[in-house]
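User: Teach me something about this protein's shape.
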Amino acid sequence: MAELTYQLTDDQPQQLAAVDLGSNSFHMLVVQVSGGRVQILDKLKEMVRLAEGLDARDDLQEPVMQRALDCLERFGQRLRELPPRNVRVVGTNTLRRANNAADFIRRAEAALGHTVEIIPGREEARLIYLGVSHALEDDHDRRLVIDIGGGSTELILGRRFKPELMESLFMGCVGVSRTYFADGRIRSAQFQEAVNHARQELEPIERAYSERGWDTVVGASGTILATQEVLRAMGLEQSHITLAGLEEIRRAILAAKSLDSLSLPGLPAERAAVFPGGIAILYAIFDRLGIDRMQASSGALREGVIHDLLGRAQHQDVRESTVRDLMARYHVDDKHARRVRETALGLLAQVADAWQLTDPNERLLLSWAAELHEIGMDIAHTQYHKHGGYLLQHMDMPGFSSWDQQQMAALVRAHRRKFPIAEPMFNGADSTRMIRLAVLLRLATVLHRNRVSRPLPHAAFKVLGRNQLCLTLPESWLRRHPLTRLDLQQEAAYLTAADVELLISNC
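Assistant: First, the predicted structure itself:
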């Protein structure tokens, strides 16, 4: 990792940790930030091959899950004492696919002692680019960054630390190897089929990348680092990967005739089973994008996660930038959105302890949902809360995990009209917390229905019982705002569907 300078608000040394639950390998990176410097303390990798555990129905099988959990128990010994805000654990393609991912995540969180996020493909691409960029010399070249993982392949174009074009393709070294070399034999026809499959995956995006162009090509992660080491050990390339070098590796792979016999100089024995699939993907990328040479980088997803955590510590959270960008793109009335946000957070402060909403992430979630609650108006005013929920659930949102997006989408969907208690977010294991956050957003929205800039009077808000609330506003103010009084009465009726009793004024 390149040495960088950060000025954190806390002068004491801090440890930050990133865990990458990849489809092939699990990685843990622990760094110490002290005096503005980043120093690596621990860097662990275990080849778990999580993708091998997916059956025909995309269910993770117990033996592979247990193998992964054993690894996480070992990681957990190192991570358990670190504060949650300093640790980010991300799951990628296999956990995006697995039907029983929720069961695995529950057990993984118990093993690690920290929350696990499943991140979308383009968020994975953004973090990879961030990790690679910080590992390279800081120049102004446009870079094409390629990462071949166990279950997906990411391609990112960007300059310095800012990605411009990102794609995550549904092909990886484990999946391709399982599909085309499942019987353990390596034949020329099979290898060509694997290359053709990768070419088909690349076809929809290759024109967009080729038209933009690039100055340098950088590869990251296991397949590409292993390729570089094999080329060096074979005496073919010392500093770059080339198409000619890949052709030599292809010949050596075909000469082995089987995975059991595959033993290339510089290739770790544990990677041999998935190396042919990775080389087929890399060969296709060089071919379709016309790449002459690629340099390998030690930076990857886990390093990107560390630098993203550093950004959050410096109040340079990319999630905040994403929210700002969406507000501008969908013409959100930012003054009104911020009024709703401040009122929602003010109500939260009064009931946080009683409602057990003291996690800083809950404050962030409510804040972002308030700022984006009218995003659907740019589609249509009619049922704009439903349009907004749909947009937030399905769009690419840099910095956000899939779970974050689902929660925010549910809150925006639920911020007005009939309470959608039948929605999964409001009747599952986390339903009580989500209902409470939705109530706060709904009340803040109602109180600002007239959209004026004059400040509201103090709204006293307290919990009387498990499901009983009291909202007190000055009687004189309510007399001057009869429509708001009516709206609050209607809101009280809506909330009965969520088993919440709202009392107004006379408490």
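Now, about its shape. Residues 152 and 171 are 5 Å apart (CA to CA). Residues 317-457 form a domain with the Hypothetical protein af1432 fold (CATH 1.10.3210.10). If you'd like, I can walk through any region in more detail.
User: That's plenty for now, thanks!
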